[in-house]
Design brief:
The chain has 236 residues and is α+β, with helices and mostly antiparallel strands. The protein is built from six helices and eight strands. The strands form three sheets. Strands 3-4-5 form a three-stranded antiparallel sheet. Strands 6-7-8 form a three-stranded antiparallel sheet. The termini are far apart. About 2% of the residues have low confidence.
Length: 236
């Protein structure tokens, strides 16, 4: 693993938390960056939201997430960001979702899981049967994959006709014992937009499906706020 403070290629090389630095980079990247992050495979500049962050960087991050609050909503949300930043070092997108949706109307869920059935084993091809609703319509589809989670995700993607890329998938036990409640966290990316999703259940496959749909719902909500077309649906 490369340490975060490694020059040029470390995770902190193109990350800015200071409000002055953030404002300068937003206006002209060369102000604080002597090279483009893409030149070394870093992807893009990362604005770290924390107690030293500025209002412009906060507004920019919200716009990237698809939120366009008015000045009053932005002021109130920024105040809450500062208070939260006193309690934790870095603010993540889930925190921003909570902050801004409490200042603005919370969008309804586009995708909802109704039922899921998965077959998997050493001598069978993993197969998932997913039934879910998209708006008022109910859709059901069967799909295969390299594993039970992959089969479920491929089937969900086929129903929703989304082309998101799974960036990370993490599982942890919330409680102890063989009947432990499992929590799944995923990060997905589609058309340059990223979203994190969370799901919990004693069945890890169900938790995985819920986490994936949670992330897809966030992307759909941002697309709707951006004035894009309604989400597509697959055939039954």
């Amino acid at each position: 693993m490369v340490q975060p403070n490694k020059a040029i290629v470390g995770a902190n090389a193109f990350a800015h938390e200071s409000g002055i630095h953030q404002d300068g980079v937003l206006k002209e990247p060369m102000t604080y960056e002597i090279m483009r992050p893409e030149s070394v495979g870093a992807g893009k500049t990362h604005m770290v939201l924390g107690k030293h962050s500025g209002r412009n960087a906060f507004k920019k991050r919200l716009e990237e997430m698809g939120y366009h609050p008015n000045e009053a909503e932005l002021d109130q949300a920024f105040e809450r960001l500062k208070r939260l930043a006193d309690q934790k070092k870095e603010i993540f997108e889930e925190d921003l979702e909570t902050i801004i949706t409490e200042e603005m109307d919370r969008p309804s869920e586009t995708y909802k899981l109704i039922a899921i059935h998965v077959e998997s084993g050493s001598d069978v091809t993993p197969t998932a049967t997913v039934e879910m609703s998209i708006g008022e319509a109910v859709h059901k589809m069967v799909g295969k994959g390299d594993g039970p989670v992959d089969a479920a995700y491929r089937t969900i993607a086929a129903i929703t006709q989304t082309k998101s890329r799974l960036l990370s998938y993490n599982v942890k036990g919330i409680t102890g014992g063989t009947d432990a409640l499992g929590e799944v966290s995923v990060s997905i990316e589609e058309e340059g937009k990223t979203a994190m999703g969370h799901g919990a259940d004693t069945d890890i496959i169900i938790a995985s499906a819920r986490a994936y749909l949670n992330a897809l719902n966030k992307l759909a909500a941002r697309a709707a706020r951006g004035g894009k077309a309604e989400p597509k649906v697959g055939l039954i």
